[in-house]
Amino acid sequence: MRTRTQVGIVGAGPAGLVLSQLLDQAGIESVILENRDRDYVTERVRAGVLEQGTADLLDSMGVGERMHREGIVHHGIYLRFRKQSHHIPMSDLTGGRSIWIYGQQEVVKDLIDARLAAGQQLHFEVSDVSVHDFESDSPRIEYTHEGEQHTLDCDVIAGCDGFHGVCRPAIEETLTIYNHEYPFGWLGILAQVPPSTDELIYANHERGFALHSLRSPELSRLYIQCDPHDDIANWSDDAIWTEMHRRFETEDGWELHEGPIVDKGITPMRSFVVEPIQHGRLYLAGDAAHIVPPTGAKGLNLAVHDVRVLAEALTRFYADGDSSLLDGYSAACLRRVWRVQHFSWWMTSMLHLIGDADDFEHKLQLAQLDYVVSSKAAATTLAENYVGLEKV
Predict the structure, then answer these.
(1) Within a 13 Å sphere around the CA of 232, how many CA atoms are in the beta-carbon half?
(2) How big is the chain by its Cα radius of gyration, in Å?
């Protein structure tokens, strides 16, 4: 079967879904192709921190109602080291900007509901996806759906299919790849227990990093630094909680509450960027183009920024044939990508036990942390980057 659309979108994660919603608002037709089933896409536990700009964009697209009802606004974070907590009042330092705690899977649910309610095309469980002729004015996507082979002709292909997708490999020989793998990973748990903190805690400890986050008033999300090659089967629930208590320990009587662990896993950490993130009529966005370590809570937010830039460029292109913004898409996105990469690397380096680091390097980390919590200028730099820079 052969069909046609204006923009073919590969991937129904946040990048692809936000792009489709923005294009629909501009009167531009698109089709989304996703190789996973709907339940997988909407139930997979992923990021949970939305920058101010991301939350504002969801509002402007008409999909923020449930976020306001169920999400949680945070105005700061805690840095914990030497068993003491220090509050970074982000909203006070950034003119009132804040972050939202609202799971990526919830964002995805809201966007899918909006797209299907508008009668827009979204196909799950497609296979054998491949992209073709993107160096011409008539690119196409071939795929199989419900046992039938399809060809989707389009003007533009948006590769929003993640790090392991098919779009980046299709142009990889034209790309420069920047990759840095960290010598540690995160062991993360989702626990059925109210959070032990009112805002996120980032802890630097001699045994390694720890993070106390949350997903709701009833669900806590916690992480500890670990060997990226470790097997989660080696970690009993009791062992996990014991290590959590060690790394979050304070001298002021603060207590970490335990509860049933409903999900756990180990995630390796890397920084990854390709340049450029476009070739011909194929444009990469989100994890297909870059990966950041999760310390700065930037992955989802950076993906949303990519497609915001792409949607603006496509709107200009379809309005008057002006392709200048499309031509400059990669350069416009990469400026923010590298700023975010630096912030995420900086947070990671400041808070984690780095490989064979000696006592000297740990003292340097503590000196940096002391400076951040004692200097308004340093705290403002962290706050501005964490809530999301308005312009880069």
Answers:
(1) 15
(2) 21
**Per-residue confidence (pLDDT) for residue 139, from 0 to 100:** 98
Kindly provide the b/e burial profile for residues 334-371, where b requires at least 16 CB atoms within 10 angstroms of the residue's own CB: bebbeebbebbbbbbbbbbbbeeeeeeeeeebeebbee
Per the CB < 8 A criterion, the answer to whether 36 and 51 are in contact is: no
3-state secondary structure the chain: CEEECCEEEECCCHHHHHHHHHHHHCCCCEEEECCCCHHHHHHCCCCCEECHHHHHHHHHCCCCHHHHHHCEEECCEEEEECCEEEEECHHHHCCCCCEEECCHHHHHHHHHHHHHHCCCEEECCEEEEEEECCCCCCCEEEEEECCEEEEEECCEEEECCCCCCCHHHHCHHHCEEEEEEEEEEEEEEEECCCCCCCCCEEECCCCCCEEEEEEECCEEEEEEEECCCCCHHHCCHHHHHHHHHHHHCCCCCCCCCCCCEEEEEEEEEEEEEEECCEECCEEECHHHCEECCHHHCCHHHHHHHHHHHHHHHHHHHHHHCCCHHHHCHHHHHHHHHHHHHHHHHHHHHHHCCCCCCCHHHHHHHHHHHHHHHHCHHHHHHHHHHHHCCCCC
pLDDT in tens, 49-98: 999 999 999 999 999 999 999 999 999 999 999 999 999 999 999 999 99
The pLDDT assigned to 354 comes to 85
pTM > 0.85: yes
Residue 391 pLDDT > 80: no
d(C-alpha 22, C-alpha 303), whole Å: 14
Q: Which residues are catalytic?
A: 74, 202, 294, 298, 386
- For the stretch 316-357, pLDDT in tens is 999 999 999 999 999 999 999 999 999 999 999 999 998 776
Q: How far does the chain reach from its first CA to its final CA, in angstroms?
A: 44
**Mean pLDDT, residues 155-160 taken together:** 98
